[in-house]
């Protein structure tokens, strides 16, 4: 059914939320706005799918007795009334704060049916006369419309059919055979009933479609798993915001630990989302507050997954004390020609800041230098490394990923079992290490990114990314490659 599709679309797009809903103590950190262009796309998709799932549509048998001049009472029956094809010539979608109306007008349809009549002739003796045949019906100027209400119920969208209807303006019946008196009698007696049967059957189909669409909406997850550590909370946090040309959704948007240890969050949405200036040219706009990224940072940090033992580097001589002979001679002296490994862990969750045109991250880490001496791991020194990186986001299919590049770093010796040594001595070794090992490693994870809340079957297309004060905005068209389970 058409409605189903529509919803799905909406739902897809919708998963995120609208930017400025009325102040509520629950803030959504991902906002989603479906623009007029997006609504039209959804509407066309919905109608197309609905129409194709509508036909063939079988209508109930219609029969009655009709008085025909000179002939008397004739029993007539129409059976196997089937709507074959419906074409829609124009359609529109309108919004106001009470709901979404979709109207398909100028629709044509063609039907086929079997007719049958019988009557008793009294010319000499009563004889039963009957005939049967086929007819086709052409319906013109049909109009189908529905109004839907969309509501957030406990974090999930609920779709309600507020009104729905189908009106048939004209129909013409073409009989295949039959007597001429029969034709007029049939038209006079049955035209209204055929019209009503078409109208109510289509109306009923639309209702069924909306119910299916709604149950589909109910199956949307409130959390999207990202990996075995984190999920993205995609609960809707406020009512959808409908204005006259767009629908906005606001969703929680924070990362939560999969192990369900709920950590209270103290995030604050920094800015009032506003529609991106080049908004109307794309179907969908998704805005992600920097809190989304910082929540990810905290979840992964708490899961202790931001730890890393480095045993291999491009210049492997750096992982042997011999490679440090001239920079930290006392290390070589104490552990000559021993292999080393680096035990790197972040000391606080990385802090991500988004400002116009750029993303910055500050990463505080501790690097413990460990010597592998006769199967024993001996920590010899710990260096605090503070890295300032600048990042960029990228979209790949429906995932938002990114990468970081080194801006600057500072080193401080935290503790040492081999005596003091100066950080400037290891500055260039560290630079090489960060550039060639640490950042490529981080980027291999960051590039995978996380799934944006886009309904299955829909894919972002020609997405543009822009950074504004504390938010990343994605303005994108979508393509539908799925099929709806009608
Ligand atoms: C009903 O109509 C369809 C299409 O015209 C036809 O294929 C089918 O045989 C008909 N069934 C009966 C019982 O007449
Ligand atoms: C707009 O709201 C009014 C009631 O306030 C309703 O009658 C009308 O059908 C709505 N129109 C649309 C397009 O939803
Ligand atoms: C629907 O459109 C197609 C192609 O334009 C046309 O061949 C067909 O006859 C139309 N059917 C009806 C019922 O108007
Ligand atoms: C109804 O549409 C079908 C498919 O286009 C076509 O084959 C058939 O001839 C049409 N019937 C009438 C009465 O227009
Ligand atoms: C997801 O977000 C909703 C709304 O903010 C909240 O009520 C719910 O507790 C969150 N779920 C988890 C697992 O944090
Ligand atoms: C890495 O260092 C941490 C302390 O920061 C320690 O608990 C852990 O055992 C070390 N891991 C290895 C493999 O040396």
From TrEMBL:
<keyword id="KW-0732">Signal</keyword>
<dbReference type="InterPro" id="IPR045897">
    <property type="entry name" value="BPI/LBP_pln"/>
</dbReference>
<protein>
    <submittedName>
        <fullName>Lipid-binding serum glycoprotein</fullName>
    </submittedName>
</protein>
<dbReference type="InterPro" id="IPR017942">
    <property type="entry name" value="Lipid-bd_serum_glycop_N"/>
</dbReference>
<dbReference type="GO" id="GO:0005615">
    <property type="term" value="C:extracellular space"/>
</dbReference>
<dbReference type="InterPro" id="IPR001124">
    <property type="entry name" value="Lipid-bd_serum_glycop_C"/>
</dbReference>
<comment type="similarity">
    <text>Belongs to the BPI/LBP/Plunc superfamily. BPI/LBP (TC 1.C.40) family.</text>
</comment>
<feature type="domain" description="Lipid-binding serum glycoprotein C-terminal">
    <location>
        <begin position="278"/>
        <end position="476"/>
    </location>
</feature>
<dbReference type="InterPro" id="IPR030675">
    <property type="entry name" value="BPI/LBP"/>
</dbReference>
<dbReference type="Pfam" id="PF02886">
    <property type="entry name" value="LBP_BPI_CETP_C"/>
</dbReference>
<feature type="domain" description="Lipid-binding serum glycoprotein N-terminal">
    <location>
        <begin position="34"/>
        <end position="260"/>
    </location>
</feature>
<keyword id="KW-0325">Glycoprotein</keyword>
<dbReference type="Pfam" id="PF01273">
    <property type="entry name" value="LBP_BPI_CETP"/>
</dbReference>
<dbReference type="InterPro" id="IPR017943">
    <property type="entry name" value="Bactericidal_perm-incr_a/b_dom"/>
</dbReference>
<feature type="signal peptide">
    <location>
        <begin position="1"/>
        <end position="19"/>
    </location>
</feature>
<dbReference type="GO" id="GO:0008289">
    <property type="term" value="F:lipid binding"/>
</dbReference>
């Amino acid at each position: 059914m058409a409605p189903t599709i529509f919803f799905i679309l909406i739902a897809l797009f919708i998963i995120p939320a609208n930017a400025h809903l009325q102040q509520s103590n629950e803030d959504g950190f991902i906002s989603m706005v479906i623009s007029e262009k997006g609504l039209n796309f959804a509407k066309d998709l919905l109608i197309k799918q609905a129409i194709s799932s509508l036909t063939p549509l079988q209508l109930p048998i219609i029969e009655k007795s009709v008085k025909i001049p000179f002939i008397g009472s004739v029993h007539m029956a129409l059976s196997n009334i089937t709507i074959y094809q419906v074409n829609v010539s124009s359609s529109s979608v309108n919004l106001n704060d009470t709901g979404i109306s979709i109207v398909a007008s100028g629709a044509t349809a063609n039907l086929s049916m079997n007719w049958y009549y019988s009557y008793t002739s009294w010319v000499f003796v009563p004889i039963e006369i009957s005939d049967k045949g086929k007819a086709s019906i052409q319906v013109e100027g049909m109009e189908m419309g529905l109004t839907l209400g969309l509501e957030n119920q406990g974090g999930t969208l609920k779709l309600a059919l507020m009104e729905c209807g189908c009106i048939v303006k004209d129909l013409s019946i073409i009989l295949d055979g039959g007597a001429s008196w029969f034709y007029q009698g049939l038209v006079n007696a049955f035209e209204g009933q055929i019209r009503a049967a078409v109208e109510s059957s289509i109306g009923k189909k639309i209702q069924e479609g909306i119910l299916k669409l709604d149950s589909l909406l109910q199956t949307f997850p409130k959390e999207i798993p990202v990996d075995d550590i984190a999920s993205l909370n995609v609960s809707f946090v406020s009512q959808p915001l409908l204005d006259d040309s767009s629908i906005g959704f606001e969703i929680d948007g924070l990362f939560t630990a999969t192990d369900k240890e709920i950590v209270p969050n103290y995030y604050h949405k920094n800015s009032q989302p506003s529609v991106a200036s080049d908004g109307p040219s794309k179907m969908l706009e998704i805005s992600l507050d920097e809190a989304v990224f910082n929540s990810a940072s905290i979840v992964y940090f708490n899961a202790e997954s931001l730890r890393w033992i480095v045993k291999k580097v491009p210049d492997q001589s750096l992982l042997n004390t011999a490679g440090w002979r001239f920079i930290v001679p006392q290390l070589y002296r104490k552990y000559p020609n021993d292999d080393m490994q680096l035990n790197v862990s972040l000391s606080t969750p990385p802090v991500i800041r988004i400002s116009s045109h750029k993303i910055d991250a500050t990463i505080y880490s501790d690097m413990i230098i460990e010597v592998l001496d006769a199967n024993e791991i001996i920590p010899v020194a710990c260096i605090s490394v503070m890295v300032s990186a600048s990042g960029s986001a990228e979209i790949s299919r429906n995932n938002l990923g990114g990468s970081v590049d080194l801006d600057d770093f500072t080193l401080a010796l935290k503790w040492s079992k081999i005596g003091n040594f100066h950080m400037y001595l290891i500055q260039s070794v560290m630079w090489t290490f960060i550039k060639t090992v640490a950042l490529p490693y981080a980027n291999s994870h960051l590039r995978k990114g996380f799934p944006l809340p886009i309904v299955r079957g829909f894919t972002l297309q020609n997405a543009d990314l822009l950074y504004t004060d504390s938010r990343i905005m994605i303005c994108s068209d979508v393509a539908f490659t799925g099929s709806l389970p009608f």
